Amino acid sequence: MVLADLLMRNVRNNPHKRAIVCRETQTFLTYGEFNSRVNSLLNALHDLGVKKGDRVAVLYHNCHRYAELFFALMKGGMVLVPIDFRLKRKEISFLINNSQTTVVVAGNDYLGVLPSQVDIPTVRNFICIGKAPEGMEDYEYLISSHLSQEPQVTVEEEDLATLYHTSGTTGLPKGVMMTHKNLISIATNTLIAFQVTPDDITLHTSPFSHVAPLWPLLIHFYMGGSNVLLKKFDPQGVLEAIEEEKITTWNSVPVMIVQLLNYPDIHRYDLSSLRWISYGAAPMPVEILKRALALFGPILIQVYGLTEAYPVTLLPREDHILEAPEEKLKKLRSCGRELINCEVRVVNEKGENIAPVEIGEIITRGDHVMDGYWRLPEETSATIRNGWLHTGDLATVDAEGYIYIVDRKKEIIISGGENVSPREVEEVIYMHPSVAEVAVIGVPDEKWGEMVKAMVVLKEGKKAAAEEIMDICRNNLAGFKKPKAVEFLDSLPHTSSGKILKRELRERYWK
Q: Percent helix, strand and coil across the chain, each rounded to 5?
């Protein structure tokens, strides 16, 4: 089975079923209509000389055209290289050159950050979505000028499908090779876990340039559900879409849920159609989780994973409860247990399973694990050892197999010889009612080597003093874990997946 099969099954069985709703362009496409555009696009790419195995970079926001591009490339055995449109020209140039991309598809709004051809010499074709300048192909013209007959391309399970790049929170991005087999495995695993049906209508708010929104797209295509796309996340747009489109499933990230919780008019909207809300890509503070459960009810599901294997674990709806004994409540702090068809262990330096009181690294194996890093065999060998992907995430595990992430190996703060988990400190600071977001980092200190510092964003219209933040930590944490400094910021830098870019925060102090 390959990715094009997900589309073709619905073309055969549900050609008149609505596949895509793009709220930005007010475009509504059935599976039959969607497939016709996909075929015309792929036939146009063939006429441009694009062939199986070629890398195609896409610089665009969520839209029906992004989904068309994805399935056209999958049908043609080409490789999707998603690029976050918020990146700078230098960063985009690196991703295109690193992937040896031959075609760039970019929205007209993003041409200003697109490198010149001199800087990206492997690119042979430029395609523009929107008004195309001289020297670029027009996306819609390519579709309208080519027939929609099914292209004849043989695609195998082991063929490379996507080349997502790691977020670069700890260094230069690495290209993550995912084959059709990898992505079908991810779709199958999540489809079973989330029990998606043909009646489901899902909302896409996370940018397709990140791997996290890919599995919801795949599983709803798998089952013949409907996909509603928003150009970008904004609380009002999300609430309107849920009410008007009768959304049943939504994959989010914690920062989105926080913004919804803080939206003053949220109670005016009918959200009763929602069947589940998944969240991942960044830690969800327990205090925020409690507020979300109080508002939405027990419909939240947590997924944990990384670009190299997504998802890996799941904390189901039945574990998202507020009224329960403490032993049950503590599971809210976990990322759940291994997803079906995913083997997951937490091991020490010797590769042995840890005891519940110990801290180890999360490792995983299965068909959901990447094929390797693009053109980085040594990095691949260092990350995948004896068939196990080493995530770099530190965790504990309880007797029932629930995994509790402590932090990233590279983010642990060593202050005066003591290991401090930023996440543990952040969880405590979120207990302050005025805190909207927080990032805890280690900064240089002559006495301690590293000093714990908290970067805090307050809720709109709220106030707090640094001493209040210190006090709440002093009352809930060991002295060596307490921040020695607190800085208030208007906002924190984020990746497209919602992760806080702590690397950018640390750079100011460690340069």
A: 35, 25, 40
